[in-house]
Amino acid sequence: MTQDHVSPGPGQGPPDHTVADEIAAARAEAEQGGPPPGPTVESVNETLKDGINRCSACGSTDVRLRGSTGMLVCLFCRHEWQEERVEEALGLGVGIDELEGTVVLGGAADIADENDVLTFTCEACGAEVVVDTAHAMNARCHWCRHTLNVNRQVPNGAVPDAVLPFKLTKDEAVARISDFAGKRRFFAHRQFRKEFTPDNVLGVYLPYLVVDARAEADYWGKGEVQTRRWTEKHGNSSTTYYAADVYDVQRSVRFTVDDLTVEGSSERLTTGPTNTNNIINTILPFDTKNAVRWNASYLVGFTSEKRDLDVDALAPRVEDQLLSVGRSQVQGTLGTFDRGVRWEQEKLDVGGTRWVSMYLPVWLYSFQRKPGDLVHYIAVNARTGETMGSIPVSQPKLLLAAMTVGTVLEGAALAFLGASA
Amino acid sequence: MMSLDLPHVVLASSDDGSLLWLLAAGPAGAAATYWAVYRYYRNTDKSHAFERDTIIAAEPVQGGERKVDHVSRTQRSDIDGDNSDKHRERVHRAR
Known about the structure:
The structure holds 2 protein chains of 2 kinds.
Chain A: H1 19-31, E1 51-52, E2 63-66, E3 71-74, E4 80-81, H2 86-89, E5 101-104, E6 117-121, E7 128-132, E8 138-140, E9 147-149, E10 162-163, H3 170-182, H4 190-195, E11 202-234, E12 237-263, H5 266-269, H6 277-282, E13 292-293, E14 303-304, H7 311-330, E15 341-368, E16 375-381, E17 387-389, H8 395-420
Parallel strand pairs in A: 5-15, 10-15, 11-14
Antiparallel strand pairs in A: 1-9, 2-3, 3-4, 6-7, 8-9, 10-13, 11-12, 11-15, 15-16, 16-17
Chain B: H1 2-15, H2 25-42, H3 50-53, E1 55-58, E2 62-74, E3 92-93
């Protein structure tokens, strides 16, 4: 094997820049009197204001999403329309290979206000109406029945830059959840089987940050190429031995990532044995290219969960994912090393990132045996229909099945050994 | 009947070490059945395959390799600690 190129080792190359470094640099610059950090691209939907969203044809405020078309529909005159796609409206589909620094859209800006409750004055009757933005972005005026909407950017993370409307109807989601659980009925926990009611599925907009990034990743490690393989006899048994050449391996790749999607809620971000958040993570990706400008009317009839994580809190997660993307990109160049490669060091240089906050649509069925127990989710991607879930298992039944299989196999093994003896 | 046969079988198979592993078939089969069904129901191993499902535009991979050693005799069929396909397993981060 010839050495075609050797790059400087770790520490010998130019200093790398991470997302966290970019953010820290921006803050330091602001403290020294430079331009302030924060949103660099405004995403406010200027055609809307807080309060009443009226149908442009008849003036009614009974507006909601029509799932089958993905458009807003006036329930009074059936007029349909939709907001602009942010991909074109905010120029998100271009310039990823020229990104510099950290670009944060207005809806992804740092959360500065923890207050979830907003109070509106109804434009129709003057009543004071309260909206709890932690769970909903609309409220009915209790006096005149008009629907009021939160459309302006509020600094509590509740209003994103864009929303991807629901496409799958509730009936379609119920069918998918029933099918998923139906295939996993036999070993399911008795209480789950008894209480399973797919009609209780809930449509919820979950908060995500969608990231475009330009990066370069470097990897260093050891690779081995087999040079010989032979077998030696030791009495009745034999042992196989190998000889191999060992190589220092280095790889480097520049790449751009378009619409990398990470959870914007701390409750959903952590995965492990104490939760089933990986289920909701698995139904990614969404067709985020079809996300439209924020209009709270898209949320009528659904619940929402507000974002509570800032860009700098998510930067380490994104860096990890970029390193993983780089590793997957270089894997195809390792075919020569038939005994494998052990990566030992890696380095990430982030040229630029762009952060957009979005509400993405999920049909969610949850089950909890008793308060304090693990919450099991069955989640349906309300755009692609991808379904994933966690079904609680009946341990006694599963152990009995495993022991039965083990006993049969052991019996067969003993019978075989007896016969061969 | 089985209790009478068992000592005979174990003694017989001890003479031929290559067949002893068959005795592990029962416990291994039970464990495999348990985990296969558990994972099918709980899906604890699933997550978003962002490495594959995200739009990625990469330039040609650069790099090289240099022979530094030779292993003349080992029973290992692959390199120790092969992580070339474990993309999410982080290693030392050079700064």
